[in-house]
Amino acid sequence: MKDKLAEKRFRKDFTRQQLKVAERRGAMQRAYGRRQARKDTFRDSISGQVTFDKVVETLMPDTVALLLESSNSVFSQDVIKHREETHIRGQFKLEVPEIFSIVDKPEDAYEFLAKSLAVVLYGKNSDVRFDYSKCDRVDVGAQVLLDLILIDVIAFFNRCLGTRLIHNKFKWVRKAVGATGLKSTKVSIQQLLRSIGSLAIFGEEKAFSNIVPCALTRYRRDPKWTGEAAAEHKEVETTRLLEYVVKSLEKVDKTLTEEKLDSLGIVIGEALTNAEEHSSSHRRISIGYFRLDDTDPERVGTFRLVILNFGTTIYEKFADPDCPNPGIVEQMRKLSSSYTRKGFWRPGKFEEEELWTLYALQEGVTSIDPLERRRGKGTIRYIENFFEIKGLGDQDMKSRMTLLSGKSRITFDGKYRTSSRGPKGDEVRVMTFNSSGTLEDSPDSKYVEAVKNYFPGVLISARILLQRDDLQNG
């Protein structure tokens, strides 16, 4: 009997091993097929002299490709490749700014990100090192942009190394990229880098008792997916983000009722849908991070979540002559005319782009065909409910949510709340950022404003401070 059991076990193990071998062989064959396809694509696309620009155009992954194509931003390929840093040879050390934040110190952050892209992609150096030792604070939004650049450029170099013609001619594609000065880097920054940042992404992930990570997720909707398939994928991502929220709240002994969890799930799903709708590329990226400060007697924790996409901005999508929702566009145009008559425009500070971006966030406003989606809840609804996690009453300057799109920045810190507009039974929630509660009046310039740096897409960045006194179960 024992022999038969042993033989049966052996057959199962042997079959399992055969399947693993076959799976590995299949994976290798598929990888070889992809490499050959890239080589064929490259050969077919190149005519005449092989230039590095043509190589980038052919083999660069999506995210950095979109950044390089954004002619209005500091990431424009025509600007990046001519930066003086690209001529420096040998090892190049990039010192991360003291405050690395595209919200609080945007000019420093964008300059650093542009320099990083130029050095890593076009630099003639053989070794690039990132140094955080002089950095005091890193925001998730800025770090994820840097990490996305590194992920795609390294993937690009790996593709180049599969084609001898490329790596023989362009020697810098054998570049090493890493970090330096980690022993002198603040503990909180090291934790971010090793839990969700580039160190974790490239194999140096570490678990921390005071950290709840929500790892970087890149989603791209397949054009072949039906509405049902897309909904299933959104449900998976919504569940993942919900689990992250729940685990984060457990760190400060807070639980949510089933009703609030369902509500939050709807809101997160709506935010993901809006992020995808506003993207010309049907891509979205999400990442989160919760850090509990054990040194504080009140057990203060900071909750962060970033959802973003690249492509056209909110304003560009509605301003497109082919926008599939002309009814909404007409309403926006009428509002613009009203602002012109009232003299509300402030060149360089508040223009039509900022107004349309604000309008696009309201409940019921969508850039897709209204027949395809009956009525969106809008990003404003997401912001409102997200802050309900904290139970925010008085204004808390440490808790903030910021939306960046193009040259528009909209900030929510609790001073302005949503209100209901419209006939009873058919009300919609709006946030106008003014005391009158109507979009016919100009919004507070501290909360809806034009910024110097152009973000090529949409980014929503939330930072919420959670304290024991803020939190009530249920």
* Cα shape: globular
What is the helical fraction, as a range of percent?
40-55%
Strand arrangement across the biggest beta sheet? 6-7-8-12-9
User: Strand tally, please?
Assistant: 12
The domain count comes to 2
User: Main beta sheet, described?
Assistant: 5 strands, antiparallel
| Cα-based radius of gyration, to the nearest Å | 25 Å
Mean pLDDT: 81
Tell me the span between the first and last alpha carbons: 57 Å
Based on helices, strands and strand pairing, what is the structural class? Answer: alpha/beta
Oligomer: single chain
SSE pattern? HHHHEEHEEHHEHHEHHEEHHHHEEEE
DSSP summary: helix tally: 15
Measured by DSSP, the beta-strand proportion falls in 15-25%
Q: Report the uncertain regions.
A: 370-376, 391-395
Characterization of this structure:
The structure is a single chain. By secondary structure, the protein is α/β, with parallel strands linked by helices. The protein folds into two domains: 29-208, no CATH class; 209-474, no CATH class. It has 15 helices and twelve strands. It has helices spanning 2-45, 52-59, 62-69, 77-80, 106-122, 140-161, 164-169, 187-195, 198-204, 227-250, 258-277, 314-319, 326-342, 352-360, 378-388, and strands at 91-95, 99-100, 127-131, 137-138, 176-180, 211-220, 283-292, 301-310, 400-412, 419-421, 428-430, 448-466. A five-stranded antiparallel beta sheet has the order 6-7-8-12-9, with helices on both faces. A three-stranded parallel beta sheet has the order 1-3-5, covered by helices on one side. Helix 11 runs antiparallel to helix 15. The protein is globular.
